[in-house]
Design brief:
This protein is an alpha+beta fold. The protein folds into 3 domains: 1-34, no CATH class; 39-97 and 155-188, Elongation factor Ts, dimerisation domain (Tetrahydropterin Synthase, Chain A); 106-146, Orthogonal Bundle (GTP Cyclohydrolase I, Chain A, domain 1). The chain contains 6 helices and 7 strands, in the order E-E-H-E-E-H-H-H-E-E-H-E-H. The strands form 3 sheets. The chain has a 3-stranded antiparallel beta sheet, covered by helices on one side. Residues 200-207 have low confidence and may be disordered. It holds the Pfam family EF_TS. Residues 8-188 form the Translation elongation factor EFTs/EF1B dimerisation domain. Belongs to the EF-Ts family.
């Protein structure tokens, strides 16, 4: 765990993190607290792109997608990377990828999914060889659901993110790769207390 002093570092000029939190609180008229923070950076010639969903004010949103794109050639157009990066950041918000590539899918997640798919396939009563083929086929669908590079592009589902990157690489004349990505949503990871859940349900019924 890492703790930070909200009076440092400076965000821009004389604006501190604490000042920014105070400004947001005044803007939305609610008590605002900083619960989590993330940092993304590029290691070479690249960009950090972002997308905010449900934007009540400029720079504010309920869901955010962030991504870094890096080009091998330092002469590659950063404007093109920014354009595509913003589109992929929006895709991340909508598609909710869990892993960047198939190679980065955790062994635990992969084994758990195999077990689930094998149990489903065995209920068909087919021979073991056929069951294994069914599992592998459905595993490809799992990768398309949770792996960013394998996902169908939400703006054009006739292509996927890997192909989108290949097309961008051809456009700028240099191989472009994704360094990292983050999807975050306000309130995720916080469990509501029973009384809070009951209150929300009552308010929904009243509405």
């Amino acid at each position: 765990n890492m703790s930070i002093n909200l009076d440092h570092p400076k965000l821009s000029g004389e604006t501190t993190v604490q000042n920014a939190v105070t400004e947001v609180a005044a803007m939305v008229g609610e008590n605002v607290k900083l619960r989590r923070g993330f940092m993304l950076s590029t290691t070479g010639h690249g960009v950090v792109s972002s997308y905010l969903h449900t934007c009540p004010q400029p720079g504010l949103g309920r869901i955010a997608g962030l991504i870094t794109l890096e080009a091998e050639d330092s002469s590659a157009s950063l404007d093109a990377l920014k354009r595509v990066g913003s589109s992929i950041a929006m895709h991340i918000v909508a598609a909710k990828p869990l892993f960047l590539s198939k190679e980065l899918v955790s062994a635990a997640a992969l084994e758990n999914e195999r077990d689930v798919l094998r149990t489903q396939a065995e209920s068909s009563g087919k021979p073991q060889m056929a069951i294994e083929k069914m599992v592998e086929g459905r595993l490809r669908k799992y990768f398309e659901d949770v792996v960013l590079l394998e996902q169908k592009y939400v703006v054009n589902d006739s292509t996927n993110i890997k192909t989108l990157l290949n097309d961008l690489s051809k456009e700028v004349g240099s191989k472009v790769t994704i360094g990292n990505f983050i999807r975050m949503e306000v309130g995720e990871g916080i469990e509501s207390r029973p009384e809070e859940t009951a209150k929300k349900e009552a308010m929904a019924c009243a509405a």
